[in-house]
Amino acid sequence: MGSRKADAIVASRGTEKALPEHTRQVNRSLILRTLFHGAAMSRADLARVTGLTRVSVSRIVDDLIAEGLVLEHGPSSGGRVGKPSTSIALNPHAYHVVSLDLSAYAELTGAIMSLDGEVVHSMSVPMDGATGPALLEKVCALASALVKRSTVRVDLDVGSAIAAVVPVPVHIANDANAAALAARTYGRPAVDDLVLVRIGQGIGSGVVVGGTLVTGHRFTAGEIGHVLIDEDGARCRCGRRGCLEVVAAVPYIRQLLAEPGASATVVLGAAGRALGRVLTPVVTALGLEQVVLSGPEDIVGGVFLEEARATIEEQTLAIVTDALDIRVAVRGDDIVLLGGTALVIAEELGIR
Prior knowledge:
Radius of gyration: 23 Å
Strand order of the largest sheet: 10-9-8-11-12
Distance between the termini: 35 Å
CATH architecture of the largest domain: 2-Layer Sandwich
């Protein structure tokens, strides 16, 4: 019996039937994801890779070209006999994403990002000690300034409180989850199972399993900063003693390094080992492929990274860690902004 190519990849639940508009949206997202993660290709190659029929691919691609999301790049280099086919690729500047990083203590940072994660324009605004309504006013002003500066259509990643001042969709995520999405979407090589740890004024992490961000029942997944490390340790801002944050967060480490006679190897090594002890059960239980550290290079690189790696390897089975990749984040300075871009293209374009 002959087989037919599927016109859709749709998961139905129970007896529910996929409507034509749902099928088309799924196929559109599949084509966009394929072009986003791959190189330019012909329509025929796109049909082969996605498993969709050539007719379906051609219709959707024609719509995407008309929308400006896809560009034609001339003859394909496939080397086939006959008339060369036309290659197509995602247009990274079809949309711009305005992404704000509100995690720093001294300034607000924002950027206009292209769909492939490049910074088109960035701006920073000093907080000047502002809190409450005054701080929100600064956030709104920064968002509005970036939206106005963009020369193409814009989506926005900021808190819902400022949705009223910008005429575009709004998506929100905390800094660690956004950074984890950046590592998943733009990381090379791409992996589906990872944890990204943000080490700054505090410590948090974002966890991706099976290519999906894990948030937990009350959105507490990845909140490792207040895991108890030392019952007799320093007082944490949460009111308890000895949390991971007062052992391995940047302010604590800087304070220890500033003490007379302090050894960077000793201080950073102890902090790295503490993080490694907290991450070991996470890596083991979830079978993660990658651990990514995001923070100041002089803190998270070198001794800190190596001691975290050694601790994880010492405290679990070799089969868990023999292929585990532990690294410092690439583009660490703007990884939250990059994560905002990843969030928006996932929610608005279905690119994951």
